Amino acid sequence: MVYNYYPGCTLSTKAKQLDLYAKKAAEALGFELAELKEWQCCGAVYPLVQDEIGTRLSSVRSLAAAAAIDGKLVTLCSACHHVLKRVNSDMAENKEINAKVNAYLELDKPYQGETQVLHYLEVLRDEIGFEELAKKVVKPLTGRKIGAYYGCLLLRPAGVMQFDDPENPSILEDFIKALGAEPVVYDYRNECCGGYIALKDKSSAQNMVSKILTSAANKGVEALITACPLCSYNLQVNAAAAQPLPIFYFTELLAEALGVKEEV
Amino acid sequence: MQKIGVFVCWCGSNIAATVDVARVAESVKSIPGVAFAADYRYMCSEGGQELMQKAIKDYGLSRVVVCSCSPRMHEATFRKAAQAAGLNPYLVEIANIREHCSWVHKDKEVATAKAIALAKAAIAKVKLNTPLVSGESAVVKRALVIGGGIAGLQTALDIAEAGYKVDIVEKTPSIGGKMSQLDKTFPTLDCSACILTPKMVEAATHENITIYTYSEIEKVSGYVGQFEAVIRKKARSVSVDRCSGCGICSEKCPSKKAKSEFDQGLRNRSAIYIPFAQAIPNVPVIDRENCLKFQTGKCGICAKVCPAGAIEYEQEDELVTQKYGAIVLATGFEPIDMAKFGEFNYEYCPDVITSLEFERLTNAAGPTQGHLVRLSDGKKPKSIVFVSCVGSRDTTERGKTYCSKICCMYNAKHAMLVKEKYPDIDVQVFYIDVRTPGKSFDEFYRRAVEEYGVQYTKGMVGKITEEGDHLLVHASDVASGAQLSVPADMVVLATAIKPAADARKLATMLTASIDTNDFFTEAHPKLRPVESPTAGIFLSGVCQGPKDIPETVAQAGAAAVKVLGLLSKDKLLTNPCVATCNEQTCSGCLACEKVCPYGAISAEYKLVNVKGLKERRLIAQVNEALCQGCGACTVACPSGAMDLKGFSNKQIMAEVDAIC
How far is A10 from chain B (nearest CA, A)? Predict the structure, then answer.
């Protein structure tokens, strides 16, 4: 199986590991991530302005390109996934945005939001299945207490993202279980880490990070996993020195359990 | 040629403000067959009816069309008036120019044109009306009440007191319902069990009441006055006749891992159990899923220790068939599931509990003997936060859009009970609005605030987290705009209530309609609040909509009165607008039988005269007593053999022709 793949800018720079482990793991699981030709930055932040289409155009170009191939587009970075999925929903639901974007882009075929945007985790859950994944694990992470850090972008707004229950998600816990480790549920796993205000208001970001890490550590979490480069950055940079909890991309643990980590 | 009279009603300004009623009357006069047409301020008034009756006599009218409100409103009135003037009541047609016209239009020209079209359609139809005569059916003088909570008990008692037989069917092992789980009741703070158990005993000992506990309705057939219900008496595995209720079986039962339903899972119970001390009947039941004897074949201790020899492992479900004249639905409610409300941490945090769990926790007969303690460490809490509207007034798909109505009052009750017993505990209530309409209700709430010092904060709770050995309640304070993080040792969630899970199944079985929330629908929201739109089905208690105890009891009594009105009749007139099958054209395909929701159609081999030749073939037969006149069969019939009296295919086509 070959999936159209949208890596996004961060995965070619700061978050290379997230991308490399994902590709290696995919190979081990029997599918391939084929990078979309000429993908552009997703825009990084979903534009809440309703009459502004400029910041939506680049997302639509990638979505339309995927539609022209087989109609599926796999993402990995939480922020890219969030932006692509919401812009896609705009194209399907919002007539005004749809009309303006199509009028501007003049694509061969007008784009109506038909592409299915899948997060890598959704591929694991819905296309491969966690049970199948568990069968392919060669080095189970037995005994390791892993906390899932969801952040906000994957889950909300729940109606558009259709990813998991925003208040009590389970996809990452099920993923951790499939790798043979022990998922630990803690209170702040779906709270915002403050990544977006890390530059503007450092103390607020530190405060939010501290709550997340303390709550996880109190429940016995030994390491956190995330799918978001920004969260990963913020949770490490803005953590107080006294509370070092290793933060991994979920793909790193996946690669490790599948026995392909060293190849990267 | 028919002589048709057309009467156009103003309905005050309801119709006349939007429809030119005089023009409607004038324009129909030229239609062939119309012998008289007039408009009048209120056709339903005595004057209006007299006008119609006089015209029938003076002009020798053979048909009547009334252009007025919906037939649901006044069809019966006008039929009766025409009948009094010597006309068969089914020769009257209504053109609905109010709900279907004046109320939905603003432009008078458009509305008048539409009213004329509707009048023309009714005239075209009435020409083809035939006189119909109602049949009669007998009334079985016995009522069935489904649900043995306070609603069902009260309805049953009121019917029984009037001298009629009533059967109560309760699915759990005891009658009593949710009220038996409550500690105190608002606004008087009297003990719930103390006021409920006398009613339970009265029902159990009443000569006119038969109670089937641990029983469910399997099937209902028939119609108003003549229902037939099959009741499944689930196997109790204990003889009700021989058991003395000594309780030694529960004591000695080695399987004690099942969660007590009565105590909301806060305590374990044995596999053979009596749900609570005042249960009626005071006879245990074996929960076979958890019983070692049933699961492994070993054990059998209860049978060995029972001094009365009442244990009957071999007991099987028993089906009882009984006829009823009326059925009352009193199936009650249950709290919503908290699974979709992850932000409150209910699943992971033992000190976040629901209000019903709190009732058991403060009840002297509850799992802690009424000592208010935390479930996590058994310690007395120093501070408690109550959260209102958990899932109520929630427009997202996980919640309920309606107000659950009872929560504001029981929150105030809980807060006061805590303060009364333990003045040192801090109590805070988060709310969206405090709603306390009801006799002595607002005074009750004010007492909580003013006398007991309960802190009420307007704002919603967004998240509950664990911080060491206490909880943090993250909420907004709307008055100050502040984001609060309030430490608490215990949090109590006022969960929304929803109709009992089997309401939907029963609705299908009884063809009683339910709304999008699965509450049973009443025949009219204001004027017929305790009757279902399906004849002979009545509604009692929360199964119709959220209610507190006083309201439930009042409504239960009202439902009983409606049942008595029905049971006191010896005969009921049946609706003559039923389906009929043309044996000449019926091909016996029985497409009609498949779509009939009332089981009114059967098939029979009959000798039919086809073009002079006698032929024996399969013909559809309509049981007029069962047919409700819905017309589904007439649409399904490929050969047009099925027709509905009063709404024949020809009549409908004539209406369509008149409009087009």
Answer: 31
Subunit contact B466:A185, Cβ cutoff 8 A: no
User: What residues in B contact A218, CB-CB < 8 Å?
Assistant: 466, 468
Alpha carbon distance B208, B203 (integer Å) = 9
Write out chain A residues lying below 8 Å of B343, CB-based. Answer: 167
C-beta atoms of A165 and B342 within 8 A: yes
3-state secondary structure B51-95: HHHHHHHHHCCCEEEEEECCHHHHHHHHHHHHHHCCCCHHHEEEE
What does the pLDDT look like over B379-430, one tens digit per residue?
999 999 999 999 999 998 899 999 999 999 999 999 999 999 999 999 999 9
Q: Give the span between the Cα atoms of A220 and A215, in whole angstroms.
A: 9
CATH topology for the B334-498 domain: FAD/NAD(P)-binding domain (3.50.50)
| Rounded Cα gap, residues B48 and B289, in angstroms | 68
With an 8 Å Cβ cutoff, are B342 and A218 in contact? Answer: no
Every domain range in chain B assigned CATH 3.50.50.60: 154-226+319-332+500-559, 334-498
Give the 3-state secondary structure of residue B616: strand
**Per-residue confidence (pLDDT) for residue B149, from 0 to 100:** 98
Q: What's B179's DSSP letter?
A: G
Q: Which part of chain B has CATH 3.30.70.20? A: 579-644
Residue ranges, CATH 3.40.50, chain B: 4-126
Fold for B579-644, please state it: Alpha-Beta Plaits (3.30.70)
> pLDDT tens, A96-130?
999 999 999 999 999 999 999 999 999 999 999 99
pTM confidence score: 0.86
